[in-house]
Specification:
The chain is of the alpha+beta class. It has eight helices and ten strands. It folds into two domains: 73 residues, lambda repressor-like DNA-binding domains (434 Repressor (Amino-terminal Domain), Orthogonal Bundle); 130 residues, CBS-domain, CATH 3.10.580.10.
Length: 214
């Protein structure tokens, strides 16, 4: 296991051979063929064989595509596009607005996250979450008084408070399983249409719809 030292946390990356063992085992258990893998990667069978044997170097994008292929065969999540599940015209905040406004919108609407939009470009730059706000409240840095810290923080502009989380953006034609994989690592992800324009958001809670009996 490789460990990269960071200023605030450790990132743990599995060794390439560990990833390859997982992929080979997943391919075998799901009954996928090298032709199936080749179709996803746009490889011929010889190239797939070299890749799975460890002769060719595995790239991140290739590993990701194979994982999604495996998940599509083992997951109960429907093989449907995400476009009918995400929230359009979601309530959002501008990056130059104060934190207390984001907190108020989350509290009043029962949300745990909000998209953050740049007022000038009108582009969504990420999300602000209740977890990010809590984390920031626990670390008052360079303040005159701890007693006034929460008020000071509440009045800070969102973009100046280190509370914006960068999250993946998926085209609306993306499959649910791909978006679900992204949500394993993020509170929410953004959905795009028409030349990369952000049009909505989907959260982990949205996947609960799949469990509701109709």
């Amino acid at each position: 296991m490789k460990v990269i030292e960071m200023s605030e946390e450790h990132i743990h990356l599995p060794h390439e051979e560990t990833i390859m063992r997982y992929l080979r085992k997943g391919i075998e258990r799901t009954g996928l063929t090298q032709e199936d893998v080749g179709e996803v990667l746009d490889f011929n069978q010889s190239a797939v064989s070299r890749l799975l044997a460890g002769v060719s170097r595995l790239r991140y994008g290739e590993a990701y595509d194979i994982v999604l292929l495996i998940l599509k065969h083992v997951s109960s999540i429907p093989n449907e596009p995400v476009k009918k599940y995400y929230t359009r015209k979601a309530i959002s905040v501008h990056s130059d607005e104060p934190i207390f406004l984001a907190a108020t919108k989350m509290w009043n609407n029962g949300f745990t996250q909000l998209p953050v939009v740049d007022r000038k470009t009108r582009e969504c730059v990420g999300i602000v979450t209740d977890w990010a706000l809590l984390k920031r409240m626990l670390i008052p840095i360079k303040v005159k008084s701890k007693e006034t810290w929460l008020k000071e923080m509440g009045n800070k502009r969102i973009k100046d408070a280190d509370v914006i989380d960068k999250v993946p953006k998926y085209p609306s034609k993306s499959r649910l399983i791909e978006v679900a994989e992204g949500l394993m690592h993020h509170y929410a992800v953004l959905i795009e249409e028409n030349m990369g324009k952000t049009v909505g958001i989907i959260t982990r809670a949205d996947f609960l719809k799949l469990l509701i009996q109709k």
